[in-house]
Specification:
Distance between the termini: 25 Å
Largest sheet: none
Radius of gyration: 19 Å
Helix content: over 70%
Structural class: mainly alpha
Strand content: under 5%
Length: 214
């Protein structure tokens, strides 16, 4: 997914550059396009990952092959794209905010004497925290929609509620049962995962880009 994302980001940036948009706006649009492209192309894999992670002792799918076969038979082709709308709706502002914040923070941080050129990594951490917090409710809704369907009762706990179609109905159901804090359930863990991953990714990306330019 990252290779598609960064490729789309570079292409979008080059296409937008002649328009002479402000750096923040150019980065936001390029990031949004990159996120939407990568998410759409790899969404079935993301859905499978979420469903495998939600399995308990009672295995819903025995293997990757059986999961593909069962989803295709029980839910049809649309089953592989359950929650795609909210997935794209989440990733567009997330990647837009992330790259906009990153490109804004990176220049001033680059002037600091940080070890190993870690200004890129620091900018990645700050951008990730900002973007992840801003769109976390949509990410949570996406994951809950991904485990809907005929196998819903067999996932961990067996108590995953049935949500109506769409972001609005799902968010209303979550707020009604869990309160507004329910939309941010798991944010802390999400940040602990996303922040260091973004730091490593952006540090590596800048080094690879510099190497290819040379």
């Amino acid at each position: 997914m990252s290779s598609i994302q960064f490729s789309a980001y570079r292409v979008s940036t080059q296409l937008l550059h002649p328009l002479q948009l402000p750096n923040g706006a150019e980065a936001f649009i390029s990031g949004a396009v990159a996120g939407a492209s990568a998410t759409t192309l790899t969404y079935p894999l993301d859905l499978l990952r979420t469903r495998f992670a939600a399995q308990g002792p009672d295995k819903v799918y025995a293997s990757l092959r059986s999961s593909i076969r069962d989803i295709a038979r029980q839910e049809g082709p649309k089953g592989f794209f359950q929650g795609l709308g909210v997935g794209v709706g989440q990733i567009v502002p997330y990647m837009g905010l992330f790259f906009s914040a990153y490109e804004t923070l990176r220049p001033p941080l680059a002037t600091l004497s940080l070890p190993f050129g870690s200004g890129d990594a620091t900018a990645g951490v700050l951008a990730s925290v900002l973007a992840k917090t801003g769109v976390f409710p949509l990410d949570l809704i996406r994951k809950r929609l991904q485990v809907q369907g005929p196998t819903r009762v067999r996932y961990v706990g067996g108590k995953i509620p049935v949500y109506g179609k769409g972001v609005w109905r799902t968010s209303k159901a979550i707020v009604a049962k869990e309160g507004w804090r329910g939309l941010y359930s798991g944010l802390g863990v999400g940040l602990l995962k996303a922040a260091p991953a973004s730091a490593i990714t952006m540090w590596t990306y800048e080094r690879a880009l510099k190497f290819m330019k040379e």
